[in-house]
Fold Cation-transporting P-type ATPase.
Amino acid sequence: SMNKNNKFNDHQIMYLTPVEAYTLMNSSMEGLSEVQVKERIEKYGKNEIASKKETPMIKKLFSNFTSLMALLLWGSGLLAILSGTIELGISIFCVNLINGFFSFFQEFKAEKATNALQKMMPSYARVVRNGKEVKILAEEIVPGDIMILEEGDRICGDARILRCSDFQVDQSTLTGESNPIRKNFEALKEEVSYLEAENMIFTGTTVASGTCHCVVVATGMNSEFGKIADLTQNTEKTLSPLQKELNVLTKQIAIIALSIGIAFMLIAIFIIKDPLLESFIFALGMIVAFIPEGLLPAVTLSLALSVQRMAKENALVKKLSAVETLGCTNVICSDKTGTLTQNEMTVNHLWTADCQMDVSGEGYAPIGKIYNGNQEIDAKKSNSLNLLLSGAVLCSNAKLIAPEKDSINGRYTVLGDPTEACLEVVARKGKIDLDKLNSYYPRILELPFESRRKRMTTIHQLKEPFEGSQRIAFVKGSPKEVMELCTHCFQGKARAISDEDRINIMKANDMYAREGLRVLAVAYRTLKPHDKDLPSSIRDYSPEVIEKDLTFLGLIAMQDPPRKEVKEAVELCHSAGIKIVMITGDYGLTAESIARKIGIIRSNDAKIISGVELSNMNDEELKEVLKGEVVFARMAPDQKYRIVCALQEMGNIVAVTGDGVNDSPALKKADIGVAMGITGTDVAKEAADMILTDDNFASIVKAIEEGRAVYNNIRKFLRYIFDSNTPEAAAPALYLFSGGLVPMPLTIMQILTIDIGTDMIPALGLGAELPEDNIMNQPPRKVNERLLNKKVILVGFIWYGLLITLFALGGYFLVNYLNGWPQKPLAMEGSTIYYKATTMMLVGVVFAQMGMVMNNRTESESVFKRGIFTNKYINLGLVVEFLILIAIIYIPILNNVFNTAPIGMIEWLYALPIPFVVFAIEELRKKIIRNRHKRKGVKK
């Protein structure tokens, strides 16, 4: 089906010869003329990735004042002003304003941090125009330009290679494939996918080695990179679970407050026959009393404190509400290379005909030893090992770069191919003197690696003869291919290779491969000038002539090791009911081996799905696979996006990690996208909700713990706020139902003092409560679980609400009792005794709430286990709250505003034990609950 007109019209340039290729682009090796460049800039636009229009500042700011919860507060402030309590209305407006600016500022800070991560370097490109080589800004490149590239260049246009030498490209940003891809300029003979074409290169990737001339075929948004950016920008974010939940909560509260207000108004008008206006104002007061003014600031503060704590754990959160999304995440889709692994190839095993050896140490730092069993080996004393390591290093081009003396983290880095870099590391561990080696074996020729040969060869001049020869060739490559070219095997010295040797070599190779290791074989051949088949001139050396009659030296097995902390983090995820799905561009065996090593897959029937298998599945089949343990290997960029969509359709909350451009659509689509701060590309960081500044998977788990704590803290806060709503409602209820015989035990102003002042201050401290110990032993909360559930209503509103009401009313009646009640009727509004009595009711509520704020710090464990004074925000809040209360009671000006009066010794004696009694009752209740759970055998 190689019919050229239909099959390949889209990417036909892959199947043409270089001359046909540039002709197709109306170009030539001389490059474009000025006129052509002008025309093409008109036609195709500049070579840049269009960024989506930024949401204007003012709109971002405005959105912080228009959430449902904020609207409810604007409304209640308005009601307060209508009912004549202007101070109150203004104070509610202030709460709303402060909160809005605060959350805007938090997100603004995070955004600035992200923008700072985007490097704004103008990049340049070398092109041929009018037959001359010129340096231009990358944005001026047009289709048809002849571009010249060399090692280290960033490629800034999709292009077809016209000629190249030893040209390798690092495409990891685009495809996730971590090893550099070797390219050539031949026309393709059979059909492959565009991104895998060996004669095409793409925007956003970098040149790992070699040089190349190529013709640009697509720029800007038409490049593959641009298409991904476009998909990313057009993926809309939905509301986060917390935002949805707060909207539900707001509606619930509004309904409760309104129905109570209306009920009281109707009772006042029809049963107690109060005048209409008075009843209306009374009802407004009730509604305002029922709306938790402190909820929004508490949520915001709670999220902000979490964001700060997470920043210390190396997780930068860009959007406040994203913190809580992590708390209900139940699936993490993780990349392998660099996130779960260190992205530093490491040699683990060596094999020679003498013995099999293990190598200690991980990563590029040359710290470690070579062992045979428990015995340390020195390469100087073992001919076989010495030659194996020397040959491997001489036959490679990567360089290991030691950290600079004054660098902070002191990491070794690599120039070139990571698989070759680890060879130098293992040679140093074997105590081989590399400087001496290079001067002793100067290289005179390289026959570069080719995918059809699966090997490369270097030829070296010898300072002193070896096996009677002045030249030696080292070959390294795929074990099967290299072994087939061997006639000898080295064991202390060269000897003829036997069938048994061949079986042993393949056995060792298969054993390593099953462990998911990459295996290289190394062999050599001494080149004697009088060999009949050697050409007289070195220029005529070719793989066919050189790569035969080899002597097998040994095998080198390597792997990108898992990060140290990952195993424990994965363990935690399992116990927290979170599933991890690995999605990687790497091979199945390697992926499976790492996944088993770190515990992502544990069962024998786990599935390893390749990219090809996935593209043959329909969505139903994919969802079926996703129910079990699964690793996705050899995945194309858009397949990650598809997996995320499928998981979300199954009702999961999905977190996705990634670092490449290819990950950004999935990062954006996920409920929470997590980008890598060090290896991540700007595009990925832009698309993500959170950035791991140390690229460490374990940071995600810390962040999940924080997210869960946030939700629990908001619920604690709710319970605490509702405790005081009952006495606030009981006061007017008592007044109404007694037909005015009991004068209002709490005035509207006092109710607001509780809501905006004394309750709110320590309550903000609940938002700073750290996660409970057992928080990661429970499954994630269900998305349809409500903040305001039966338990909150029963425990908060009813049980504690009534308890506090009794204590508070006790104080109200105590003052009257000390002043001659029940012989005399209750003191009427306007008298000092009345103000004293309402003051006592206020003190009762505030003191009971002091006990309650302590109680609400934990769900079921004892507060003593947490440490009574471990939350400094609450401690401070309690002190401030007490001082405010004293000021309201004893400062004459404030007496007028808050309808209070100074109280005496006996009243204080009644009030002081209240917090302790409330605290003791709740500790008892928690103990009963813990024992019940123990009996049921549930660990809480």
Q: What stands out?
A: The first helix runs from residue 4 to 7.
